[in-house]
Design a protein that fits this description.
- The protein starts with a strand and ends with a strand.
- The protein contains 10 helices and 7 strands.
- Helix 1 crosses helix 5.
- The protein is an alpha/beta fold and 217 residues long.
- The chain folds into 2 domains: 139 residues, 3-Layer(aba) Sandwich (Rossmann fold), CATH 3.40.50; 71 residues, Up-down Bundle (de novo design (two linked rop proteins)).
Length: 217
């Protein structure tokens, strides 16, 4: 059984679930719309540029989880799945997942976006497991803080190694699909790195390393 690893945002999805969640909160009036949207766009641009301060971003992104009950946020997420995520689903992505599933591969998503946002998306896609940035919870309620290592850049590699140590999986004949230069540390690690609709920096890296470049759009 080989490990088939996938980034989520702009790879398996035609869009960014983290940014879309921020837009959804604005649409529903859950946050201060103008200030939140400006900050959401600012951090998204940093991410695209490969210059994101992940801790600064998480302080911003996880605060709404702490401002409302977990039950209420779960109800909101169900609407979010229908209104924002369903339109991002890609037929070619589902075909790719099916191909690896039929090969007997273990499907793993590794995403910087927090588990509250991404866990239900991974479940919908039929993924075997997910490594995501973990929002801290105490007594079932979110604190607005991050728990453990954020699943971002080299943090994805650290989290993957810890996961490998706790499972019977390894990186022999492993795949990783991603769109972002932020994922280069993990792309360098696997047997078969694949750039998916890559940003310009990842496209350059893929071409210089002779990595396959594919489109799921």
């Amino acid at each position: 059984m080989s490990l088939a690893i996938f980034d989520l945002d702009n790879t398996l999805l035609n869009g960014d679930s983290d940014h879309a969640w921020g837009e959804f909160l604005c649409d529903k009036g859950i946050v201060d719309v103008d200030a939140y949207r400006e900050a959401n766009d600012y951090f998204f641009q940093q991410y695209q540029n490969g210059t994101l301060d992940i801790f600064e971003f998480l302080e911003f992104a996880l605060k709404p989880l702490a401002d409302h009950s977990a039950e209420y946020m779960q109800q909101l997420h169900q609407q979010f799945m229908q209104e924002k995520i369903a339109p991002m689903m890609l037929e070619k992505a589902e075909t790719l997942l099916k191909k690896h599933r039929n090969q007997g591969d273990f499907l793993l998503i590794i995403t910087a976006t927090n588990r509250f946002v991404t866990g239900p998306i991974a479940a919908h896609l039929g993924i075997d497991d997910i490594l995501a940035t973990e929002p801290e919870q105490i007594n079932g309620e979110y604190t607005g803080k991050v728990a453990g290592i954020p699943c971002f850049q080299h943090g994805k590699v650290e989290r993957l190694h810890a996961w490998l140590e706790s499972t019977d999986h390894n990186l022999e004949d492993s795949y990783f699909y991603s769109d972002s230069i932020n994922d280069k540390p993990l792309l360098d690690l696997v047997t078969y790195p694949v750039a998916v609709d890559p940003d310009e920096l990842l496209k350059q890296a893929a071409e210089s390393n002779s990595w396959p470049i594919i489109s799921l759009r």
